[in-house]
Amino acid sequence: MDKKIILVCDSHANKTDQAKKLINFGQNLYSYLKNEIILVVFNEKNIENFSRKINFGNILNIKTKTHEFGDIISGLETVIEKTDFSYLCFDSSIKSLEQASYLAGKFNASIITNVLKIEDKNQFSRMIFNSKLEAGIKNLKEKCVLTIAGSSFDENDSIFSKNSIEEIEIPHENSDIKIIETMSRSESSSLDNAKIILSVGRGLNSSEEIEKVFEVSKLIPGSSVGCSRPIVDKGLLEYQRQVGITGRSVSPKIYSAFGISGSTQHLFGMKDCEFIISVNNDPHASIFGHSDVCIVEDAVLFLEALKNELEN
Ligand SMILES: Cc1cc2nc3c(=O)[nH]c(=O)nc-3n(C[C@H](O)[C@H](O)[C@H](O)COP(=O)(O)OP(=O)(O)OC[C@H]3O[C@@H](n4cnc5c(N)ncnc54)[C@H](O)[C@@H]3O)c2cc1C
Known about the structure:
The chain is of the alpha/beta class. The protein has 8 helices and 15 strands.
């Protein structure tokens, strides 16, 4: 069986942009490997029209009952069982990262996340040490899962003309991930129902600086203040405000991260946020790869300016 490059377009809202970015990445990889490229999309109603929009014809449209993790994974497992892949490529959203890591484990593939550049057919570069260094990382396995860094590999015109549009339907029952039991968290938090969360990280390092976030929050109805773990560890805020894998998972309409770097542990708690705004004085902070709006600025200065704006 010929190996393929499989591109996974799992976006709901920005399907076209995500597909174009993935296709552009796939084309770069194709120039090294010459493996056929397949774009996998989910629940596209008008696939012919979508194919014209993205100028790419080799598409597999998977129909799932829901857009939840279990159903998306079921669909991808079905494809991978029939299609041998050299590279399985995802975008870098938090949801994509979850799927990528699950499938790498399941299919014994290596995984390289946040790929910035393709250096060779088996070598990629990504930022390490909190975006301070760029490292070359080699894939040593037959199969490899990649997630592509936020801003790299922008859209480009497709060089492929091949047309093969297929559709498959995945029954909901196919999913082998089931919720067996649900438990409520013992202590509630103001973050649970907040429409807007203003979250602080180690970029703000004293109670005086953190107080500025509370001053802004008072001026925004429906908002609450969250934080990263180091802020709780330092005793600056209480545990109920910690967002992340060992804190809370939150789902506000807007999540603003002030001085938060974007560790995977923190990102886990933000994965259901609808719109993410980040303020960080480091233009290479990883959180920018997961944000809808990226502001390179001193968080304290930004909060002071925001407070003045809101008061006026
Ligand atoms: C098992 C385990 C579980 C964990 N669980 C969690 C969890 O649930 N939640 C969690 O958050 N972490 C968790 N962590 C910790 C996690 O790995 C990170 O250490 C943590 O998220 C980093 O927090 P931070 O982004 O606030 O700090 P840092 O990583 O230190 O980032 C600070 C950021 O602030 C920026 N900055 C500095 N000064 C300014 C300024 N003046 N203006 C603007 N930006 C500025 C810097 O550029 C940097 O990007 C866990 C770790 C482990 C090992």
